[in-house]
Design brief:
heterodimer; A: 108 residues; alpha+beta; Arc Repressor Mutant, subunit A; 3 strands; 15% strand; B: 207 residues; mainly alpha; 80% helix
């Protein structure tokens, strides 16, 4: 379906889309802790890691580990490429919705 | 469950809408609440000081109770603002956190300098000058802080509020002490509360 519509298949999955939109809310130069992201997205750590890996492989997010022991922190941020990809994704999404409402059809 | 299933365009649009609304609600500091907290301090606190000096001939200054009320209100507002900010920025690190610390340090330094200047000149200047430094000074400082903070998020409402507070604060240089208090309470506190209402509407429209 993603390929037919021109929507980026890496982003076009509910969990990854939520991750991208959530990270896009942060200001440039900011990152979010893995724990807070998990709390906002509502996935298990394992599932979130899997989705983050896919987004990281595409160059859309970056993860970094800092500290050790109880001070260990994994941070996640949206890359410049990721922000651009999300902008393109939402633009295509808008176009599809607009053309569907114009034609009176339901885009799938 | 690994959420990787396909979704329709409408479903994707709904996911974007909900995720964006939730992220803004949870991760963005609620400026309207912050404005409301400080607005009440200016309006009620300074309003109480103004009522206590209204009709004084000669002017002897606000009552101890009204001054204490300002400090108590400010302490509550500061605590509320701290909770609002801490909840929103939990888990966030990076440039904006560093900028926020610098802005807070700049405001705290400015306020400390104001207190020192006020103490240093208290015995050698007129009550009018002292009222301007002591009452309008914090409003000028708040205005400059908002102008500085507006640069962080290209925040036009914060810039507008800051500019207005600076104009109001500076205009107090021409006023008598009681009028300074009334102006700070009404034009200063009123502006904070107005921005709170405008900010709430902008937030409701996702801006």
């Amino acid at each position: 379906m993603a390929a037919e519509t021109g929507l980026d298949p890496v982003i076009h999955a509910p969990a990854r889309l939520r991750v991208m939109v959530t990270l896009a809310t942060l200001r440039d130069g900011d990152d979010l802790s893995f724990t807070r992201l998990q709390e906002l997205i509502g996935l298990t750590p394992g599932n979130l890691i899997t989705h983050l890996r896919k987004l990281e492989d595409a160059g859309y997010v970056t993860t970094a580990k800092s500290g050790s022991g109880v001070n260990a922190r994994t941070s996640v941020s949206l890359s410049r490429v990721g922000r651009k990809a999300l902008d393109t994704y939402t633009a295509v999404l808008r176009q599809l919705l607009d053309s569907a409402s114009t034609n009176g059809t339901s885009p799938h | 469950m690994l959420e990787d299933q396909d979704m329709s365009v409408q479903e994707a649009a709904a996911v974007v809408r909900h995720a964006r609304a939730r992220a803004r609600r949870e991760l963005v500091i609620s400026a309207p609440l912050v404005y409301a907290a400080w607005g009440l301090v200016w309006l009620i606190g300074y309003g109480a000081m103004w009522l206590s000096v209204r009709g004084q001939h000669p002017y002897t200054g606000p009552s101890g109770v009204s001054i204490a009320a300002v400090f108590v209100l400010a302490a509550f507002a500061a605590a509320a603002v701290l909770v609002i900010i801490s909840k929103a920025v939990a888990g966030i690190d990076g440039q904006s956190v560093r900028y926020r610390r610098i802005i807070l340090a700049a405001w705290a330094t400015g306020y400390l300098i104001l207190l020192i200047v006020q103490a240093a000149i208290s015995s050698s200047v007129s009550t009018r000058t002292l009222a301007f430094v002591g009452f309008a000074g914090p409003l000028l400082l708040a205005g400059l802080t908002y102008i500085l903070a507006s640069a962080l998020g290209r925040n036009r409402p914060a810039f507008a509020l800051g500019a207005w507070l600076v104009i109001v604060g500076a205009s107090c240089a021409w006023l008598a002490p009681a009028a300074v208090l009334a102006t700070c309470a009404l034009a200063g506190g009123g502006a904070f509360l107005l921005m709170s209402v405008i900010g709430t509407r902008l937030r409701a429209h996702g801006r």
